[in-house]
Amino acid sequence: MKEGKSAKLNHQQQHQNGHLSPSKFAKLFDPEASWDKDQLGDVLHWIRQVIGLVCGLIWGAIPLVGGIWFILFLVLSTSFIYGYYAIVLKVDEEEFGGHGALLQEGLFASVTLFLLSWTLVYSLAHF
Known about the structure:
Layout: H1 2-16, H2 22-27, H3 37-61, H4 67-88, H5 98-104, H6 107-125
Helix pairs in contact: 3-4, 3-6, 4-6
């Protein structure tokens, strides 16, 4: 009986500390997992933020300049998000508001993060 309470307490502490349990991490790649609109939106938002930051750091470090690189970021980011929800998760996009709603999740925040990181790294590394 104490072991059951201890395991439940550990799970609650893990959840409160913000750590993902193995089952939640596995859900990110499970096409059979059930998603609600908010959960999927949060996952897509944070994936897009990571893509924006990584691309901004790389673009600034290389150094790349010009609008073509901004367009390439948009294409890469959108393609990755589409591939994730359509191919990996195999969700029915109509349940979540269609392709437009899913592809728009986190877009504007990631563009801002991308431009900020690109500009900062470029300015610090090449001046």
